[in-house]
């Protein structure tokens, strides 16, 4: 199941951080590393700091966009400080570990880390179902990338160890992938523009709030299909007017 949990590093600038993150992952049993548009390719420094986890680096997938990294994931959790202009469903590290393990039994899931200095952008964070913040000392909350990866991977492992002897749940919930959700958001935006509910040139604010609403609601795959059917019906009705 742990191979369903993907660690995604976005636009990493220091190759040593890639190696240190790989080491943090391997100590906790995680193997799936994805590098999104890294500023440099893994090099000798990355291998040195991986300290025996160079196999994680060698198998790392490098992709140009976050969308590609999370396309097939049914759950995406992004790391973030709490001080954001747009509030979002927040988890603490333990809750994040619980969700990643629970849903990792059903489909790929992703834990996304941002740039060393600036983290994830608001647009990137809006692609996540939840945000997770590490409750560090507010007087000195400076965690480097590898420390953050280690902390959250530890919570994943602790939860994974807990569930080893538990009976599996009888009923499984199928959630849409990130790619399917993005398709729904595009469909929703197009429909709202055609009805005049949002302006073509300024859809951002309303769509951000709608993304937050649906990410919080977590519609199941069947429910998302119903919503898209409703949107299609509205579009057909407008075309006939």
From TrEMBL:
What chemistry does it catalyse, as a reaction equation? Answer: uridine(32) in tRNA + S-adenosyl-L-methionine = 2'-O-methyluridine(32) in tRNA + S-adenosyl-L-homocysteine + H(+); cytidine(32) in tRNA + S-adenosyl-L-methionine = 2'-O-methylcytidine(32) in tRNA + S-adenosyl-L-homocysteine + H(+)
Q: What is the organism of origin for this protein?
A: Aeromonas caviae
Instruction: Give the family from UniProt.
Output: Belongs to the class IV-like SAM-binding methyltransferase superfamily. RNA methyltransferase TrmH family.
- Tell where it localizes: Cytoplasm
**Subunit details:** Homodimer.
Q: What is this protein called?
A: tRNA (cytidine/uridine-2'-O-)-methyltransferase TrmJ
Parts forming coiled coils: none
Q: What is its main location?
A: cytoplasm
Physiological role? Catalyzes the formation of 2'O-methylated cytidine (Cm32) or 2'O-methylated uridine (Um32) at position 32 in tRNA.
A cellular component term, taken from the record's GO annotations:
cytosol
Q: Which stretches make up the tRNA/rRNA methyltransferase SpoU type domain?
A: 5-154
Question: EC number(s) per UniProt?
Answer: 2.1.1.200
Among InterPro entries, the record links this protein to: Alpha/beta_knot_MTases, RNA_MeTrfase_TrmJ/LasT, SpoU_MeTrfase, tRNA_m1G_MTases_N
Entry keyword Lyase: no
Keyword list, A-Z: Cytoplasm, Methyltransferase, S-adenosyl-L-methionine, Transferase, tRNA processing
The Gene Ontology terms for molecular function here are: RNA binding; tRNA (cytidine(32)/uridine(32)-2'-O)-methyltransferase activity
What Pfam family is a match, any one? SpoU_methylase
The gene it comes from is trmJ
Supply one GO BP term.
tRNA nucleoside ribose methylation
